[in-house]
Amino acid sequence: MLTEADLAAYVQRVRYQWIDVDKVFGAQCWDQWSHYATNFLGVPSWPTYTNAGGIQPHSGFACNVWHNFERSGLGQWFEKIPAGQALRPGDVVIWELGSAWYPLSHIATLLEVLANGMLRCLTQNPGAVQIADLIPRGVLGALRPKALTVGAFHTSKTPALAASQKLAAFHRARRLRKGRNTMFIVLEKNARQDGSPAYATFTEGVEGSWTEMDTSDMQGMAANALATQYGQPMSCTLPFWKRMKLKHCTPDERAALKKAGW
To answer: Distance (Å, rounded) from C-alpha 57 to C-alpha 231?
Structure first.
């Protein structure tokens, strides 16, 4: 059986690395999970893939690891822990597609549940593998490794990336921005008729740069690329949303909005 000392050693070994297991879409959150499962826990590679148990309901997204747990055969190595049950170090936590803070879904390795409810995790994207405190809202549940026995496990957040990795993270985050500050925001509550959130990107001070999207379709944009470029969206109020939309939409869109009473 693996112990907390083994887990601590694994964390230190992969911290600050860019892990890209499948060589698709760059270093995503899924890659960190797959590396943890295969290199630390000894799980074969294929069951860790998002579509190992089928493409439904969210083909290619990290949350499919949870949805297809039974069909992929991961039950041989993990126990499925539903949301709301106590978590422990080494659990693999999974967030649902469309959740407010992780609209593209997310998966990370839990290191500690903090007193304030935040989940201190080993996680990747945005940025290299790091230790960060993640918001539990939107968690589907966790996969508990059968081969890992841990007690208390305490570790500090990643204070800073190495200089070369910080530069790489900067360039990843600035890609397509062309030197301007591009914002990625979310209007969380009742933005759409079905109650789902709405997302938008805009480049500060650039008329016509407003691009609005829904959780379901993302207007055909590469959803994974959005998170890689800009990180998780900033939650905003309706007045802020309206103000930014009026400022950054096209002149024709602005005229139509004002005619509609904005």
So the answer is: 24
The pairing of strands 234-235 and 182-187 is parallel
Which CATH number belongs to the domain containing residue 101 in this structure? 3.90.1720
Let me know whether 153 and 23 are in one domain: yes
Q: Is the pTM of this model over 0.85?
A: no
Residues 215 and 138 placed together within one structural domain of the fold: no
Residue 168 maps to a domain: no
Q: In the block, which residue shows the tokens 């294929």? A: 46
Q: Rounded to 5 degrees, what are φ and ψ at 163?
A: -55, -45
Mean pLDDT of 130-147: 94
Closest CA to 81 of 143, 37, 36: 143
Residue type, position 62, single letter: A
Task: Kindly list the strands in the beta sheet with 234-235, ordered across the sheet, starting from the edge strand earlier in the chain.
Answer: 211-214, 198-203, 182-187, 234-235
DSSP 8-state secondary structure symbol assigned to residue 39 = I
Which residues, 6 or more positions from 240, have their beta carbon under 8 angstroms from its beta carbon?
185
Tens of pLDDT, residue by residue over 188-199, are 776 777 777 788
With contact defined as beta carbons under 8 Å apart, do 129 and 123 qualify?
yes
Domain range for 218? 175-259
Residue of 24, 11, 21 lying closest to 48 (CA atoms): 21
E strands, 98-175, in order: 104-113, 119-123, 130-134, 139-145
